[in-house]
Amino acid sequence: MFTDGGPGTKVWLCPGTTYRITSTIAFTAADQQLATLGYKSGSERAVLKIDNPALATAIQGDCRRCARVAIRNVIVDGGRAAFGRVREQHAPGLVVLGGNEGQSVRESWITDPRGFTAIHVREGDKLSCKGAVIERNEIGPVGEEYDPAVDGPDPEMSPLGRPLADGISIACRDSVVRDNKIWDCTDAGIVVYCSPGTQVAANRIMTLRRSAMGGILMVDATPFDGDYSGVVVKDNILDAASRAMRVGVGVGLSILSDDIDTILRGGSVISNVLKGMYMGFGIAAAGLKGWTIRDNHSDARHQGKRSPRCFDEPVNPAPTRFLYHAETITESKIQDGFVDSDFAYIVCIDGLEDGTEVHADELDDVVEEAPEAAAPPPPPAAAGAAAGAADTLSTGSDVLDGILHHSQARLLEGIADMGKYIDALKRAEQPPRGAQAHAEAEADPRSLA
């Protein structure tokens, strides 16, 4: 339809309908849009569900002519639970955009990619990507936890394909990643590949049933040669609620390696909040020039145990709120309270909670797993106190159950938002926007192949 329609084509999907796709939906021209009719939310959004063991990318919009293409109000299920990982070293993302200007993903739920990330915004062959907007989405769960017994000594070389995956991977100038709720991304919730001028703001990243290497990572010098000028990571909440988050915000190559020679330039990390019982290092920084790190706060418990994957030298310090290697940081403004230490590959720690069960009273948000044959598992409801109530909502009708879950989620969101507002008054912060409602109902399948 996009090929035949040309620039400006809008493809409307029927609300509440699941479309099983066997080939990639590809944008082909400028200003095209894929959306649920009426821009529905929650369980009324259309579901695009991969139904092909050879397919990893559901939607692709990184063509040379794809300026301002948009994805709105849809659910995209990558099918890793059904088909497993893609056994390629560089498996593609579930939603792939980039190489152009003004592209967007809004108010959608992206889950269970088979490749390395849920949303990939590429820089383009000539670093031409700019002005992408990724906002008000729900992303998760994403990837599988690394298991040396299954994957071998290096997750990158696992015979089953790479287990870990990111929520959002962005390499695009002057972009915005904001107000997204992201959970259970086993690599990192958000990875910023330089992306000069980009703002990452008011996102909430949680570990509920799967551990994560990191919350927000800026640990690459490519593809913009270490240029993070104008990048602002601000007002995000990193919540290690019930599984390990090994580092909340990581800045510099030595987060994932022993490289202290490569320098990342510019950028700011401001007014982010760390919380949860299972946080490793809160903010860790090394190999920087011209950065500002200020007004960040931790209410988390910082813990973790050294694993065999750690290097022998240097010996990393114990997990702490704020860590930096001062010798490798120049012309930067760093808030008080940072511990100065040499370190390398600090994500080599394991959480002390590994193997424990999730308890409702431990969580601010809970994921309720859905049957394998249904739509993807619903996003976290927004009130831990009432988490158990979701298990009782069963009428025998998927449609009615979806309506009940939707209503419950909206009510719980209201309660949670009030609590967040009260907390925000105490901290003088703006609370993040709540998640969209549950998405469980599955109607008659159709094909967009």
Automatic annotation (TrEMBL):
<feature type="region of interest" description="Disordered">
    <location>
        <begin position="369"/>
        <end position="390"/>
    </location>
</feature>
<dbReference type="InterPro" id="IPR011050">
    <property type="entry name" value="Pectin_lyase_fold/virulence"/>
</dbReference>
<feature type="region of interest" description="Disordered">
    <location>
        <begin position="426"/>
        <end position="449"/>
    </location>
</feature>
<protein>
    <submittedName>
        <fullName>Uncharacterized protein</fullName>
    </submittedName>
</protein>
<feature type="compositionally biased region" description="Basic and acidic residues">
    <location>
        <begin position="439"/>
        <end position="449"/>
    </location>
</feature>
<dbReference type="InterPro" id="IPR012334">
    <property type="entry name" value="Pectin_lyas_fold"/>
</dbReference>
